[in-house]
Design goal:
alpha+beta; Transcription Regulation, Sacy, Chain A; PTS-regulatory domain, PRD; 11 helices; 62% helix; 7% strand; elongated
Length: 275
């Protein structure tokens, strides 16, 4: 492949066989090279083709500012996540994760360990992604001798949650705070903790994820089922009152008017978990 730009001694930008811009990585790959030269196939260790021009530009900027081993390590973590989660991940993970991992390693070497205020919620809401975060901690320890805490595993998990929904990382945190608030209201109304070991709880958390996602993206649920809502309201008055409180909170905090279907399905899930 013909080199278009040399980013540093280990990274070049080239055009692949389809004429698409590709970032090539390998030790000494760019050393002594210039635009127009052919990249040495024997030195190419990794290649990245990002589908967004903006992402590609950010990737190229980042790759010149952090150590190459941090990129390689991040890719190893991403490959594990793809197998573990079994879901499509946005290309943005190739920018956000190396940036986070490299920055965190620098912080830890300076003795700066950040507390994750949402750690408990991440462990509850995003169990699979949190397991990926713990695996990432193992990989970082193995390759750098830097021992990340569980708080860091939580931060890493959030990047993988974000990579699945394809939004901005702040949206994931907004979603998590909304889910946290919904569970707090459930506890207050019932004066009890939901049993997190049940399948009903798992389904409720899954519903809350999509509910929170609709809120941050300002999407409505769909057709309104007024008749069924009245039946559920009569059958589960306490769960209905709880769901109303959640919807009132969302309206007050986010200006999002949850429709009758949101109220309906929240009531059903709350009743199944708490009654």
């Amino acid at each position: 492949m013909q080199i278009q730009k040399v980013l540093n001694n280990n990274v070049v930008v080239a055009l692949d066989e389809n004429g698409a811009e590709t970032v090539l990585m390998g030790r000494g790959l760019g050393f002594g090279c210039k635009a127009g030269d052919e990249a040495s196939p024997a030195k190419i260790e990794k290649r990245f083709s990002l589908h967004s021009d903006q992402l590609s530009s950010r990737f190229q900027q980042l790759i010149t500012s952090i150590p190459l081993p941090h990129f390689m390590m991040s890719e190893r973590i991403i490959n594990h996540a793809k197998l573990s989660l079994g879901r499509e991940l946005s290309d943005s993970i190739y920018v956000t994760l190396p940036d986070h991992i490299s920055g965190a390693i620098s912080r830890y070497k300076e003795g700066i360990h950040l507390e994750n205020p949402l750690l408990w919620d991440i462990q509850q809401f995003y169990k699979d992604e949190y397991k990926v975060g713990l695996k990432a901690n193992e990989i970082v320890l193995e390759e750098t001798d830097v021992d990340f805490t569980d708080d860091e595993a939580g931060f890493i998990a959030m990047h993988f949650v974000n990579a699945q929904i394809g939004g901005e990382i702040r949206e994931v945190y907004d979603m998590t705070y909304l889910m946290q608030a919904a569970l707090r209201i459930v506890r207050e109304v019932y004066g009890a903790e939901p049993d997190s070991s049940t399948i009903e709880y798992y389904r409720f958390i899954t519903h809350l994820k999509f509910f929170a996602r609709r809120i941050v993206s300002s999407q409505k649920y769909g057709d309104e089922d007024t008749d069924l809502l009245e039946v559920v309201r009569f059958k589960y008055p306490r769960a209905f009152a709880c769901a109303e409180k959640i919807c009132d909170y969302v309206l007050h905090e986010k200006g999002f008017h949850a429709g009758r279907n949101e109220l309906l399905y929240l009531t059903i899930h709350i009743a199944r978990v708490m009654e």
